[in-house]
Amino acid sequence: MNIETTIANQRTFYQSNQTKDIAYRKQALRTLRKAIRNYQKAIEEALYKDLHKSSTEAFMSEIGLVLEELTFQLRHIDDFSKPSRRKTPLVHFPSVSFVVPQPYGVVLIMAPWNYPFQLCLEPTIGAIAAGNTVVIKPSAYAPHTAHVIKEMIEAYFPSEYITVVEGGREENLQLLNQHFDYIFFTGSVTVGKEVMAKAAKHLTPVTLELGGKSPCVVEKSAKLNLTAKRIAFGKLLNCGQTCVAPDYILVERSVKDEFWGYLKKWIVKMYGENATENGDYVKIINQKHFDRVCGLIDQKKVVFGGKWNEETMQIQPTIMDNVVAGDAIIFPSL
Question: How large is the C-alpha radius of gyration of the chain?
Fold first, then answer.
């Protein structure tokens, strides 16, 4: 695929104004919904190969959310697209003021590996609903999902409207050196800086959805059992590979032991005594990140779990106690 030619073809197609027609956008969204339903089995298999996601977790955390977004956009696209009145300043009397939503043009969507289907398709749905053409760049770390997305899009959409570019860092750089009208990036802070720097050369507006710290504070007034259940679910979904997963817990001392008991109870209830023996437990995406996460575990501070399976790249749910700000698990070097 010649990336420059692909983008030029998309720009020509966008300038034909077909994507600005609301009926055209609705039909595209319906076509995408049909494509996802027809490819659902293949998507589930790809997510299992890349992340060992069960069909239940694949639907709950990826496919189902994308289908829900499609329903939402189809329900509200008319309201989102119509002009809205604004008050007119006296200096402009007797004119009338209003805002007319307009698409940007050719949009680049760069997705990460942790939710490789959802975070490719949800931004794509928004871009389609707004009337843009779309270039999708899935993560090379989830190659099976990336390939299924490419196959699905090519089967249902012309490349001048929506196209998928597979590959790694080289393809990322080729794309970022092109002139897009909008870039939506989900990923790390480090790569986000590169995306912003490249976009700045063309004054391209950017949305950066970046990872960060997500601490949980548990006071003695909390419903400890329910709190532990929710934290365990939020943290262990996708084996913790979620940007907004609970990152660390600050617990009031007077309820620490009680809370810890509930937390262990819910981990065992959800995944068993040893999660690496649970057939539905997700794995770490690749060897690089598996080694990185294992290196963050301080065995002297482990009070639950702390083991892993090298062959399957699965790490037990692990609780560490008496962690301090200087520990690698709190501020790891990425």
Answer: 23
